[in-house]
What we know:
two-stranded antiparallel sheet; 39% strand; 2 helices; 145 residues; D-tyrosyl-trna(Tyr) Deacylase, Chain: A; alpha/beta; single chain
Amino acid sequence: MKLLIQRVSQAAVHVDGSVAGEIAQGLLVLLGLEQGDDIDIGLRMIDKLLAYRVFSDHQGKMNCSVTDVAGGILFVSQFTLAVDTNKGLRPGFSSAMAPQPAEQLYEEILAQLKQRHPVVEAGIFGANMQVSLINDGPVTFLLQS
């Protein structure tokens, strides 16, 4: 499981010209699911995501989490994070989770995230999404299980 997290001052995801989700200050989280991932891994990753310190404290140091700053989370599935780029010039997706179990796991993780954090918006699994953001910093991290 991979979570690409970006600290944002705002972010939105559109599907078919309509807003599916949007946040002000917080984290844009792109989720890549791989074979072997399960809800237990997802729960550990949620814990890490909510506690990961990427926001500045009063001294300008990254000591605050999204929870500490009461920021939003925009949660978006991104199949292409489960990529193998070691060979050739075309990405390989043999390690990616199949669509049906990936959608079920995505929905389970999203439901758990919404129970643990007050401001969670999301994209639509499998949809062609247009994601816009203002990356604050820029600050981007890849969390992996």
